[in-house]
Here is the input.
Amino acid sequence: MWLKFEQRTEPSVLMRYLSPLIAVGLMLLSGMLIFAMLGKSPVTGFRIFFLNPLRDTYGVAELFLKATPLMLCAVGLSVGFRANVWNIGAEGQLLVGALAAGAVALHFPNSSSPFLLPAMVAAGALGGMVWAAIPAWLRTRFNANEILTSLMLVYVAQLMLSWLVHGPWMDPEGFNFPQTKLFQPHALLPILVPGTRVNAALFLAVGALIAGWVFMNRSFMGYQMKVAGQAENAGRYAGFSARRAIWLGMLVGGGMAGIAGMSEVAGPVGQITEHISPGYGFAAMIVAFVGRLNPIGIFFSSLLLALLYMGGEQAQQYLALPYSISNVFQGMLLFFLLASDVFINFRPRLAGRRK
Amino acid sequence: MVLSSVSSIVAATVVAGTPLIIVALGELVTEKAGVLNLGAEGIMSVGAVAAFAVTHGSHSPFLGILAGLTAGAAMSLLFAISTLTLLANQVASGLALSIFGVGLSAFVGKRYESISLSSVPPVVIPGLHRIPVLGPALFEQQGLVYFSWALIGGVAWFLYRSKPGLVLRAVGESPVSAHAIGYGVVRIRYQAVLFGGAMAGIGGAFLSVFYTPLWVEGMVAGRGWIAIALVVFATWRPLRVMVGAYLFGGCMITQMFVQGSGLHLAIPAQFLSALPYLATVLVLVLISRNRSTIRLNSPASLGQPFLPDA
Here is the structure.
């Protein structure tokens, strides 16, 4: 007996939406297997990793707090991914956005203007866009592969951030810790639920999801992006510019990532440190794929990935496992998703070995 | 005095370039078969931690290298199954492998942090190491440095002078034709991916067992990605991989250059650390701006899925 795949006459819509659920199921199963292999009870592991984080209002608020930057980054990335624009440097764009927004906050330490926060959002978006414009320009002008250039710029952004907080931007009264001054109250996003950390950036994220949905499903440009991604030749014959698709995909992705960076420094972090993001820009790629590059899907998958981050914290605290178990789960999830996506275009069949 | 510092700079450049050569040659063979595996960063990380763990336990660097090789091949098997059997997108699967590998290595490696291995004495080549300046720089090195040189010759010979190498290139250029003649495209691609993974695993082993020698989370620091860029820079030719790898190796040890020169430059350390990444971008731009160079040299089916009997 041999497993064979037969091409379906048309892609299965059912499998397209079932596949993420299969992937989550497989991730849960292998997660429990990992717990068992580490000598922990799989049931306890499951409870602590996936249920414990949400046991109270604070936990649920934290879930939405951590999902916010993921939603922002993922909806921006999905615009590019639809057109096969592979921006994998969202983490760097997030950091540069955080730096730009932080520069505004630190430059106006006494301002109580209601425009301070909007200016920070704009600066964050601009910072992210500038960082994303570099690979876009190198790709359209010099044909340089945007996957590699956008990723290299993540390392450059991290080093730039490190230099700023160790050097020019370091808080002189901060006992030599690599961090800036704390932002003043008017440069911090308002908290939505008292006693928690979830803040107004959640509205920005949901707004971005709605805008993303309208753009992708109701605008001509969104349609052009989709065609450019799914049928390159058709797009070219129709006169849709590949160059514009690259610019648009990169700039939207970078801008959104920049806003996500702003939401972190003006939210839970409250200053610029070397630890602004636990890899949100990379996790957002998984969010985008698991959410089927669709804003509604991204809403739910960002909550799932946020839960994986929180589960890692719980596992560290109660199971004495390294926090990086979150990344193991994230990677497994994406792998299982890509593997089960085979059933969208193919039908499995058990065939006898040919004689 | 000057000569000995030249010698030590050459030696350090060679050491820094060695993992890049090994990983990039593995990736080159994979890509020549038409498969784009962007998972090198993750494979190297897992190879590094596996090699470190085994060397720490067995006190045998050789077993450590074997562990890195095995772990690397196992990681790339995941990639091969998803892209070659399940026909998943190669770019996305490579990213998944990178994310998974970096996470897995951090998870497994947690308990090995803040342990360091005793450094492995170099292998001295008798006679040659007496050459002034270059002798100590090139011929008092770790065994894997010599391995990387042999690998360049081996890969070049395999690809351009052997029958299986010819078949592998044919699979990369036109899988449909190769399949029609009767070659097992998927089987050959599996082998190429496994070879690439094994080499990336050895590259990781070199970092954690010979280079540093310790395990720190994130120690691969983008070398996997730089190795992939190196393949483009080398326009898919083995000898040029060596040139590029030593160029990047030189970039990576600029801090040593600056200290060795005795100049007290007011350059923040972060700028020097950013050099290899900026150099990668620059090099990609220089090579890629001539579109025909890329089109003529890159394997024609690179990144395309292949389904036999479709």
Summary: The CA atoms of residues 138 and 170 of chain A lie 33 Å apart. Residues 1-40+321-355 of chain A form one domain.
